[in-house]
Amino acid sequence: MRRRTFVAGAGTTLAAIVASGAVSRPSGNESLLEAARRPGNAGEASTSTETILSDTVHETSLYVIDAAAEGPTAMIFGGVHGDERSGIEVAREITDWHPDAGTLVVVPETDRVAVENDEREGVDGDLNRQFPADGEPTTALARGIWDAVERHEPDVVLDLHRSLGIYGLHREYVGQAIFHSPDAHGDALAGRLDDEAVPWYLPFHRFTAAESGSSGPLLFQKAARELEASAYLFETTEFMLDRETKVEMTRLATAHVLELHDLLAAGGDE
After folding, report:
1. Taking the mean position of all CA atoms in its chain, how far away is CA 142?
2. In Å, how far from its chain's centre is CA 4?
């Protein structure tokens, strides 16, 4: 009875916090984000643009940002699901970032039709179920995306998403979770985000890192399976978070993945 009373009271308190707007803007890590947004000591990065599936309904842009210093290649996807706007917004933003080493490849609107319609699925259904373990990608869009992945041979893959509920709390939802390949830094990423981006009054929004097998039909699983990339699927949640908070969590997750894999210097070059 006491526990039920406490939970009910906590729910009332959280509702009041949300209503007051206090959930917006986690504290973040401004030094790391500033490092991502400006050139380091090695000099300016060079940027080029490619087109995937030109002259088709799926035509979409891919951005290649080469740092002056050598390093790994990271490939980042937004808009695999077209209604998950935080990932799309952050992917668009990072086309202007400056890695300190290596190459950053970004596809902000992976399923462009779904993005334009603000819908989860495009004309051929759910893109993130079209990369089976036992064969080629199953649609023209999936094959075009995978051709780009193979062409750039990423060492790191990050796929940005947003769920409706919280993993382990709400049935069938996977928000506030980081699914990752065995060699990726999922636990470290979750810990950093909990420290920097999750308000103390939202304990259920702490991130869960979950190691994923490579046999599923998701894009990040295929990258781990066939390219041996360190692969991540990042999920924030719609539940009790405003737009700015979802975007900031996604932005920080992206910056930390780049730092953990040596594309970005922690705190920047002074």
Report:
1. 18
2. 36
In tens, the pLDDT along 152-205 reads 999 999 999 999 999 999 999 999 999 999 999 999 999 999 999 998 999 999
Helix (H, G, I), strand (E, B) or coil at 165: coil
Check: CB of residue 60 under 8 Å from CB of residue 140: no
pLDDT value at 24 more than 80: no
Residues 6+ apart with CB under 8 A from 66: 45, 46, 47, 48, 103
Check whether 27 has a pLDDT greater than 60.
Answer: no
pTM of the model: 0.90
DSSP string for 89-156: HHHHHHTT---SSSEEEEES-SSHHHHHHT-S-BTTB-GGG---TTSS-SSHHHHHHHHHHHHH--SE
- DSSP three-state, residue 254: helix
CA 252, chain centre distance (Å): 9
For 75-128, write each residue's pLDDT tens digit.
999 999 999 999 999 999 999 999 999 999 999 999 999 999 999 999 999 999
Q: Which residue has the tokens 């790994």?
A: 72
What are 159's two structure tokens? Answer: 């796929």
| β-pair partners for 76 | 106, 158
Helix (H) or strand (E) holding 74: strand 73-77
Separation between Cα atoms, residue 98 and residue 247, nearest integer Å:
19
For 18, other C-beta atoms within 10 Å of its C-beta total 16
Q: First CA to last CA across the chain, in angstroms?
A: 56
Nearest to 225 by CA among 269, 181, 184: 181
CB 169 within 8 A of CB 204: yes
Query: Which residues are CB-contacts of 203 (< 8 A; sequence separation ≥ 6)?
Result: none
